[in-house]
Recover the amino acids of this structure.
């Protein structure tokens, strides 16, 4: 990230200070849903539709991915929003976690 | 459970009819099952950690988010327990029960039914295999819990189908 600053000691001189982005805040985070042998497949589909606004087909795709592969990345983005989604998924009693992509 | 039927009683209520003796028994047990939510195995399942290894984030979650979720789950259980006091014999066939609930309580019902299933599974250590074998091949200590998880799941499935 480039940030332009005016150095007060030297009027008219523009000092360019390069700063590194805060990777912990800026890097995308994954919201991962883990398989659970108890939750109904239809229930998981319904939750994905409600929480993420997925169309039925996309919700079923992620549900089946959870069922067959044990996990599905259902959303990626900023940490704050990812935490909110995990919170919502937990409120529906789905096993969900935040993950930093490796 | 095959004759189970959910229908809008009016614009504000949902009638659950065709509740057979087995489902009625499971429903009558529901408040007691939900009371087990604070047992360690049940709590671990209902209030999982938000990360696999970030202990700071997990601790913050336990202190801030988990109490809120616990309150949410308990509230749903209280609503359902109150509704269950209205479980009545069917006017057409006394072997069956009927229950009318406010439509506004449907989210609480779905939450409570799912909680109960997860609590039973956690406490009895039910896994993928237990949930997919015939009852007569199950460990006899697990069979009653699997039966309850399945029966409550059938009612939950009816609620979900109405929502999808």
């Amino acid at each position: 990230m480039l940030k332009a600053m005016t150095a007060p000691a030297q009027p008219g001189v523009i000092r360019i200070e390069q700063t590194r982005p805060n990777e912990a805040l800026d890097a995308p985070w994954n919201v991962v849903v883990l398989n659970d042998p108890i939750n109904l497949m239809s229930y998981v589909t319904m939750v994905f539709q409600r929480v993420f606004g997925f169309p039925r087909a996309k919700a079923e795709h992620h549900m089946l991915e959870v069922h067959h592969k044990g996990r599905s990345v259902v959303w990626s983005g900023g940490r704050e929003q990812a935490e909110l989604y995990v919170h919502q998924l937990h409120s529906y009693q789905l096993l969900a976690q935040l993950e930093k992509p490796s | 459970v095959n004759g189970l039927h959910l229908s809008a009683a009016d614009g504000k209520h949902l009638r659950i009819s065709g509740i057979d003796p087995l489902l009625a028994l499971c429903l009558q047990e529901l408040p007691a099952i939900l009371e087990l939510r604070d047992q360690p195995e049940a709590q671990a399942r209902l209030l999982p950690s938000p990360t696999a290894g970030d202990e700071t984030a997990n601790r913050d979650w336990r202190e801030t988010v988990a109490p809120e979720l616990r309150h949410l789950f308990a509230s749903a259980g209280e609503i359902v327990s109150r509704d269950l006091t209205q479980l009545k014999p069917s006017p057409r066939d006394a072997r069956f029960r009927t229950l009318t609930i406010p439509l506004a309580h449907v989210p609480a019902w779905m939450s409570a039914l799912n909680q109960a299933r997860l609590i039973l599974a956690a406490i009895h250590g039910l896994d993928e295999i237990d949930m997919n074998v015939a009852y007569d091949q199950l460990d006899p200590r697990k069979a009653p819990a699997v039966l309850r998880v399945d029966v409550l799941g059938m009612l939950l499935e009816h609620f979900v189908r109405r929502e999808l």
In short: The CA atoms of residues 8 and 14 of chain A lie 10 Å apart. The first strand of chain A starts at residue 2 and ends at 6. The interface with chain B takes residues 36-40, 42-43, 45-46, 49, 56, 83, 86-87, 90-93, 95-99 of chain A (CB under 8 Å).
